[in-house]
Design brief:
The chain is 38% helix and 17% strand. It is an alpha/beta fold. The chain has a single domain, classed as Spore Coat Polysaccharide Biosynthesis Protein SpsA, Chain A (Alpha-Beta Complex), CATH 3.90.550.10. Helix 1 links the parallel strand 1 and strand 2.
Length: 225
Amino acid sequence: METRNLSVLIPAYNEAERIVSTITSLKLIPELKEIVVIDDGSNDETGFLAEKAGAKVIRLEKNRGKGAALNIGANYISGQYVALIDGDLGDTAQEIKKLLMPIINGQADITIAIFPPASKKGGVGIVKKVSSYGLKKITKNFFHAPLSGQRVMSIEVFRELLPLSSGFGVEVGMTIDAIHKGYRILEVKTKMGHAETGRTWSDFRHRGIQLKDIIITFAHKAKVR
């Protein structure tokens, strides 16, 4: 039986600072088969560094957004299991192993990483609160980490959820579709860490775009159900 059966998909936009340490950390996972980085129109050296670190890199000429990047990346993986992760996990990326075991053991169909509390003051939590409320309203389920992009599932489940929602609505859209298809979701506590946003104008602008995408996704999913 093939033991190296985990494909990792990383949608990355301007992640040159952490992409190498993220890939290096993933390589410590015994089950790892391949790492595919979708360089989503970065204007830094993300793609070059990822390729040099040993990942397969798919380069997009223009920034297409997280959901679109993952949809494109889905065509380039061959593992029995799929991990979706962000490019800024750095040395903590190997924690994704904690999400793989419940899938292999049949405890869940999809696992989602719960991060430790943030180490610095960020926003006021509006995006997370809206996401939790919307998911509860549509799926009747409460999620501790509604926005976590760190997820593991079998290749069959992943394909059943394609195409993923566009932009930053990808996580809530995926969760809604998974619940309505009857898949079991398990949230798993991890020690993952990432580049935390702060309280600058750029950070608030990012959260505004994120909130817009999430609300659009909720509206679309509610309409089609």
